[in-house]
């Protein structure tokens, strides 16, 4: 992507809150009475995780994992590397991975392999957004929020070149029309 961008609202605060509440309700029911470790994927999932755990009615431990991924661009991670390791023990725990968005699934696939090698009792994934049209590897998302079109999205933790994470709503990043071509659509 080059040039200028416009932000177009995709999901409002209310849309997001409703989906977060619904996901939290299912998670709380499924993990009631279990020792649950919630692992957020840095940095995009931080805001989602913060809202999600406050809607959970069960106690949880939280931790984070960092993956090398997009850098400043918009294409998917090819080679995936763990850049920040969770401090919490994984072995024998029920682990819930919290992701902002699953695009091709390559990042998640690498993350699931990393976790599986540490012998958890179980691993499931909760993703606020999934882009079904772009999935390239078969990763199961037990708790999926919004299924979105193949668009680049920002806000609510998600960035473009580290910008827009602070926005409380979710927007698609649209290429701004080039001046002089505005009236030449038809
Ligand atoms: P893959 O392709 O491995 O990518 O599923 C997952 C990671 O890529 C980032 N990603 C995005 N970030 N807007 C963003 O701000 C997007 O539309 C988008 N699509 C993918 C994100 O970090 C995710 O964890
Ligand atoms: Mg991410």
Please give a structural write-up.
By secondary structure, the protein is of the alpha/beta class. The chain is built from 3 helices and 9 strands. The chain has one domain: Rossmann fold (3-Layer(aba) Sandwich), CATH 3.40.50.2020. The chain has a 6-stranded mixed β-sheet with strand order 4-3-2-5-6-7. It starts with a strand and ends in an 11-residue tail after the last strand. 31% of the residues are buried. The mean pLDDT is 90. The site of magnesium ion (MG) has 5 residues, from strand 5. Its main location: cytoplasm. Its cofactor is Mg(2+). Its EC number is 2.4.2.8.
Strand order of the largest sheet: 4-3-2-5-6-7
Compute the number of helices.
3
| Percentage of residues in strands | 25-35%
Bound molecules: xanthosine-5'-monophosphate, magnesium ion
Counting DSSP E segments of at least 2 residues, the number of strands comes to 9
Round the Cα radius of gyration to an integer and report it: 17 Å
- CATH architecture assignment name: 3-Layer(aba) Sandwich
Q: Tally the structural domains.
A: 1
CATH class: Alpha Beta
Distance between the termini: 24 Å
Helix content: 10-25%
Distinctive features:
single chain; 186 residues; six-stranded mixed beta sheet; globular; binds magnesium ion; 3 helices; three-stranded antiparallel beta sheet; alpha/beta; Rossmann fold; 9 strands; binds xanthosine-5'-monophosphate
Write the layout of secondary structure elements.
Blueprint (H helix, E strand, L loop, with lengths): L4 E7 L1 H18 L5 E7 L3 H10 L5 E8 L12 E4 L9 E9 L3 H11 L5 E9 L12 E5 L5 E2 L15 E6 L11
Parallel strand pairs: 2-3, 2-5, 5-6, 6-7
Antiparallel strand pairs: 1-9, 3-4, 8-9
Helix pairs in contact: 1-2
Bound molecules: xanthosine-5'-monophosphate (XMP) and magnesium ion.
Main location: cytoplasm
Pfam family, one: Pribosyltran
Protein name: Hypoxanthine phosphoribosyltransferase
